[in-house]
């Protein structure tokens, strides 16, 4: 059973998170207003029969709340849900990105990406190209 104080803390964090939609912030604020009286001091009178009433708020979940801009792009990535890869533009691997890192660990990460069945073909292709670039740079 979730701790009501932690649920309230999460709702308060939602209010200050810049990656959360205005609609989600409004729902969090409504939740805080309706559930904070007495609970901050440890009074759990809002619970009925040991059950947490917090789950009632999930009934009006709006999937569009995760989209927070005019283009309809997910705040955590693009339309497909993938987060933009910072290595997508320009060189896949720049020397300053490798500086201070164990090159064999970097290579191992790319190799793991290529063999991971949960990774898209696009990511595997990028990993292959990055490995080729690393090999070219280390041989030069």
Describe this entry's structure for a reader.
The longest helix has 19 residues. The N and C termini lie far apart (58 Å). This protein has five helices and no strands. The protein is mostly helical and 140 residues long. It is 45% helix and 0% strand. It folds into two domains: 63 residues, no CATH class; 45 residues.
End-to-end Cα distance: 58 Å
How helical, in percent, are the residues?
Answer: 40-55%
Count of separate DSSP helical elements: 5
H and E string:
HHHHH
> In total, how many beta strands?
0
- In percent terms, what proportion of residues is strand? under 5%
Number of domains: 2
Radius of gyration: 23 Å
- Unreliable residue stretches: 39-51, 65-90
Biased composition (Basic and acidic residues): 24-33
Biased composition (Polar residues): 34-44
Organism: Schizosaccharomyces pombe (strain 972 / ATCC 24843) (Fission yeast)
GO cellular component, one term: cytoplasm
Brief account:
By secondary structure, this protein is mainly α. The protein is built from five helices and no strands.
Fold blueprint:
Elements: H1 4-16, H2 22-35, H3 95-98, H4 103-115, H5 121-139
Sum up the structure in keywords:
single chain, 140 residues, mainly alpha, 2 domains
């Amino acid at each position: 059973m979730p701790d009501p104080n932690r649920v309230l803390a999460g709702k308060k964090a939602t209010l200050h998170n810049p990656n959360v939609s205005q609609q989600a912030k409004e729902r969090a604020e409504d939740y805080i207003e309706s559930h904070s009286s007495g609970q901050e001091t440890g009074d759990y009178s809002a619970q009925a029969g040991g059950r947490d009433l917090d789950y009632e708020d999930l009934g009006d979940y709006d999937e569009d709340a995760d989209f927070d801009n005019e283009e309809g792009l997910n705040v955590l990535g693009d339309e497909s849900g993938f987060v933009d890869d910072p290595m997508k533009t320009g060189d896949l691997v720049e020397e300053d990105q490798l500086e201070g890192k164990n090159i064999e660990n970097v290579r191992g990460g790319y190799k793991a990406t290529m063999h991971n069945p949960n990774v898209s073909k696009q990511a595997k292709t990028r990993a292959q190209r990055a490995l080729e670039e690393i090999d070219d740079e280390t041989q030069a």
